[in-house]
């Protein structure tokens, strides 16, 4: 597959825009990255489903969804609500677990006192994924009917909507969500390898089985479960990237030659070079290329050289001043891609910039982009600029992380945060009774500390309003890569 070219304008134009973006600091203030790291991990406790543990720190949340899976005769309690609703979507949850694990693998040494909390955040997800994959040839991929859920505005503790359990199997395949689940389990097995060997082995054994199922029974879960998963987490990009992604993480976790051979054999068939500047719960292409490139840069995988070429192309497509139709920058310097919840792109792409910067540094390598090149230091500055924008270095001088700084979103699109807590209002709040809180102009009564919202639009404007969910809704997959970024910058401010 041909690599997308980097169309580079004049050298002086490129450097002038890069200099403007990365070196001028009209909004800059000093940031406490470790405090932001602590809060970004704390957010996951506010997203927990199931029976909460004694050490739960987000005290306004209570147990919820304690009978999940009962209608299917299985235990599917636990896991995370992915965003501001009360559904457990397995596809973004698995991606969240993968990125939290990658954050710890690459930057755990920079987390200091927060490492334990980061490990617990991963385990809350993987404990659930183990339940969801307990039966061979079956993966439970969602709990809750999204239409009845989205018809209500109620606390997770009060849920009386359908908690249907949706699964993929041999007759209704879902290689995308199964491939991502395998990746999550494999990545987490690396995280726990020395910390909890028995748990690590369990995760890796399950990852192998789930990947085999994903590969042997190919198909998109959006086709098998269309009415349940679309348009919410419909796989627009196809399942091929998740198969390569799962194989890449299994190779990293096992060092087995079969997975490397799988990657080489399927590189063209599974379209490894497609859409190189995308990375998120639906599209793994840039992540695959960056992950595999580490071995290439270490001189251990010449047969995978094309992945490093693709990774370089991805970097070129992100550089400010290089014309690329899919990656733009707001006037304030924020990466912007069309569609909702832009911060998911900001944090995921910035994580890859930082990870690749470290891989390049160790190999004493820079990225060639036409007439110029991008140094590891430049990639770090670009990633740091995005993090600083999130924390308040922006035209509105507003932090987009709840609870960080003096000014941050107060009316986030999040049911539990926007409704009175069970502590403050013990009585049941029904499906439609919550609507008045949704429509209220008042700030949310409960601070979901650490939540990063979808963020401002392409002109740096932000409506702090619940109905504007694309801008005001937080998600687990916005925060997961941010954990790694904040860990690094807390140690290298």
Quickly describe the structure.
The protein is 47% helix and 4% strand. It is mostly helical.
CATH class: Mainly Alpha
Q: Which overall shape is indicated by the principal axes computed on the Cα atoms? A: globular
Described by its quaternary structure, the protein is single chain
The level of helicity is: 40-55%
Low-confidence stretches: 1-17
Count of beta strands: 7
SSE ordering? HHEHHEHEHHHHHHHHEEHEEHHHHH
Q: What is the averaged pLDDT score?
A: 92
Topology, please?
Elements: H1 11-23, H2 33-46, E1 88-89, H3 90-107, H4 115-132, E2 139-143, H5 146-150, E3 165-168, H6 175-191, H7 197-216, H8 221-224, H9 226-229, H10 240-254, H11 257-266, H12 285-297, H13 305-318, E4 328-329, E5 335-336, H14 343-363, E6 367-369, E7 372-374, H15 376-391, H16 415-418, H17 435-439, H18 469-472, H19 476-491
Helix pairs in contact: 2-19, 3-4, 3-6, 3-19, 4-6, 6-7, 6-10, 7-10, 10-11, 10-12, 12-13, 12-14, 14-15, 14-19
Comma- or semicolon-separated keywords:
493 residues; mainly alpha; 3-stranded antiparallel β-sheet; 7 strands; globular; polysaccharide degradation; Glyco_hydro_9; Endoglucanase; glycosidase
Write structural notes for this entry.
It is a single chain. By secondary structure, the chain is mainly alpha-helical. It has helices at 11-23, 33-46, 90-107, 115-132, 146-150, 175-191, 197-216, 221-224, 226-229, 240-254, 257-266, 285-297, 305-318, 343-363, 376-391, 415-418, 435-439, 469-472, 476-491, and strands at 88-89, 139-143, 165-168, 328-329, 335-336, 367-369, 372-374. The protein has a 3-stranded antiparallel β-sheet. A two-stranded antiparallel sheet has the order 4-5. Strand 4 and strand 5 (335-336) form a beta hairpin. The longest helix is centred in the C-terminal third of the chain and has 21 residues, at 343-363. It starts with 10 loop residues before the first helix and ends with a helix. It catalyses: Endohydrolysis of (1->4)-beta-D-glucosidic linkages in cellulose, lichenin and cereal beta-D-glucans. Its EC number is 3.2.1.4.
């Amino acid at each position: 597959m041909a690599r997308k070219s980097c169309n580079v304008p004049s050298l002086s134009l490129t450097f002038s825009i890069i200099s403007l973006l990365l070196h001028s600091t009209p909004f800059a203030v000093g940031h406490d990255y470790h405090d932001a790291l602590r809060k970004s991990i704390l957010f996951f406790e506010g997203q927990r489903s199931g029976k909460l543990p004694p050490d739960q720190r987000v005290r306004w949340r209570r147990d919820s969804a304690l009978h999940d899976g009962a209608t299917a005769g299985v235990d599917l309690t636990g896991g995370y609500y992915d965003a501001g609703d009360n559904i457990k979507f397995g596809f973004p949850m698995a991606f969240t677990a993968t990125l939290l694990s990658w954050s710890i693998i690459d930057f755990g040494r920079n987390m200091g006192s927060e490492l334990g909390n980061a490990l617990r955040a991963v385990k809350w997800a993987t404990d659930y994924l183990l339940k969801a994959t307990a039966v061979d040839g079956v993966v439970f991929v969602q709990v809750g009917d999204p239409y009845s859920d989205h018809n209500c505005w109620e606390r997770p503790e009060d849920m009386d909507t359908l908690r249907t359990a949706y699964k993929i199997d041999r007759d209704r395949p879902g290689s995308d969500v199964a491939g991502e689940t395998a990746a999550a389990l494999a990545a987490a097995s690396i995280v726990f390898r020395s910390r909890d060997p028995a748990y690590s082995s369990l995760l890796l054994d399950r990852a192998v089985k789930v990947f085999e199922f994903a590969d042997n029974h190919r198909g998109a879960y959006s086709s098998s479960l269309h009415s349940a998963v679309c348009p919410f987490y419909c796989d627009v990009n196809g399942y091929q990237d998740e198969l390569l992604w799962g194989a890449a993480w299994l190779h990293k976790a096992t060092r087995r030659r079969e997975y490397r051979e799988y990657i080489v054999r399927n590189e063209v068939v599974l379209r490894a070079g497609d859409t190189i500047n995308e990375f998120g719960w639906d599209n793994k292409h840039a992540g695959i290329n960056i992950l595999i490139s580490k071995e290439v840069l270490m001189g251990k995988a010449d047969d995978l050289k094309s992945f490093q070429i693709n990774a370089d192309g991805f970097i070129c497509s992100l550089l400010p001043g290089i014309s690329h139709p899919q990656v733009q920058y707001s006037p304030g310097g924020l990466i912007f891609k069309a569609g909702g919840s832009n911060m998911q792109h900001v944090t995921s792409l910035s994580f890859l910039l930082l990870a690749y910067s470290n891989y390049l540094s160790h190999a004493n390598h820079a990225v060639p982009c036409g007439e110029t090149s991008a140094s590891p230091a430049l990639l770090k500055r670009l990633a740091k600029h995005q993090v600083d924008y999130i924390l308040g270095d922006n035209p509105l001088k507003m932090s987009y992380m709840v609870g960080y700084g003096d000014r941050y979103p107060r009316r986030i699109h999040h049911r539990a945060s926007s409704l009175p807590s069970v502590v403050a209002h013990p009585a049941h709040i029904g499906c439609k009774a919550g609507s008045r809180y949704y429509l209220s102009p008042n700030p949310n009564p409960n601070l979901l500390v650490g939540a990063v919202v979808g963020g401002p639009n392409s002109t740096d404007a932000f409506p702090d309003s619940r109905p504007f969910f694309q801008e005001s809704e937080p998600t687990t997959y916005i925060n997961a890569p941010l954990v790694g970024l904040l860990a690094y910058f807390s140690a290298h401010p």
